[in-house]
């Protein structure tokens, strides 16, 4: 895999740019009641119907628009394709003036054309049928058995309803599942031909384009997802956290993906599942060069560790035009180790909010799985990053 394709793995939607800016601007005055509620235990477990009702109770026009977009984003995260059209059009009508005067909102609300709206209304409910058995699936280092590259990533076999299989990167750094255009044709994805979706990546790429489509069935082992809303582009196939997180209790090592894995006997580094509307992340409290930060577990990033800021001790062994290499000290759960890590000036890794202050984040990539394994159970809230 070349340097460009390696740097495509994490989606940050134009949708969320608006939401984050809106939330921050209102937080300076007073946190809106909707966001106070949505961050509570009750709000985090709320259904879409409960979210819509809570937002409908917000009378201030600007705040109602903000929470409406949050509900729309949660519909994407929940894969509720058939609920999108009516809610999308209702927001567009109710807030027509504000949308017309805001470039981000204008782009967002040109996402679906009339054909897409009609198609979405006919889609059956999204559903997940999880296997009841313990399954161990192989992780492949390359997109194909005869396709060897300089960089290994975690590929797993995914099967569509028509029997076509393809390898997808198991990417915990991608909030949404993405399918390559050619794979989408082979798998029989129902493409929303007049849909337009703009996104950026953690890695400095902007103004990228995708369409949306509906996959009738997607199988990982014997677990099946039906009526799956996916993003379709000319990039790699990614199995994102939207589906990984709905797969039950998992264990990821550098060789296998275990479904219905046994609960871990220890938890070296507890993982926090962070949900920001359509974006989702797995984060760990860490220190890099004695500075507190959050580490985002990003299996779609080939490096061991990537920092969003330059280090203190340059490593002159590796010098490339795209990145700088540093020697440093990484601390996870009190265990300190010397490490060589990379800083890419073009990367836009989002900062972390720690104790009310934004600090640079770091990415723990697939290279770290030589030393660690991931035990993931989002439903229970008990997920761990354990030393091997």
Beta-strand percentage? 35-45%
The helical percent reads 10-25%
- Rough outline: globular
The chain-level structural class is alpha+beta
Topology (elements, then pairings):
Layout: H1 3-6, E1 11-13, H2 14-27, H3 33-38, H4 41-44, H5 48-56, H6 61-77, H7 84-94, H8 96-100, H9 103-108, H10 114-121, E2 127-129, E3 135-138, E4 155-160, E5 165-170, E6 178-180, H11 181-187, E7 190-201, E8 208-220, E9 223-233, E10 238-239, H12 241-244, E11 250-252, E12 256-259, E13 269-276, E14 279-288, E15 291-297, E16 305-307, E17 313-319, E18 324-332, E19 335-343, E20 352-354, E21 357-359, E22 362-364, E23 372-376, E24 383-387
Parallel strand pairs: 5-10, 6-9, 15-22, 16-19
Antiparallel strand pairs: 1-7, 2-9, 3-12, 4-5, 4-8, 7-8, 8-9, 11-12, 11-23, 13-14, 13-24, 14-15, 14-18, 16-22, 17-18, 18-19, 20-21, 23-24
Please give a handful of descriptors for the protein shown.
388 residues, alpha+beta, 6-stranded mixed β-barrel, 12 helices, globular, Peptidase_aspartic_dom_sf, Retropepsin-like_bacterial, Retroviral-like aspartic protease family protein
Describe the structure.
InterPro entries: Peptidase_aspartic_dom_sf, Retropepsin-like_bacterial. This protein is 24% helix and 37% strand. It is built from 12 helices and 24 strands. It has helices at 3-6, 14-27, 33-38, 41-44, 48-56, 61-77, 84-94, 96-100, 103-108, 114-121, 181-187, 241-244, and strands spanning 11-13, 127-129, 135-138, 155-160, 165-170, 178-180, 190-201, 208-220, 223-233, 238-239, 250-252, 256-259, 269-276, 279-288, 291-297, 305-307, 313-319, 324-332, 335-343, 352-354, 357-359, 362-364, 372-376, 383-387. A hairpin with a 6-residue loop joins strand 7 (190-201) and strand 8 (208-220).
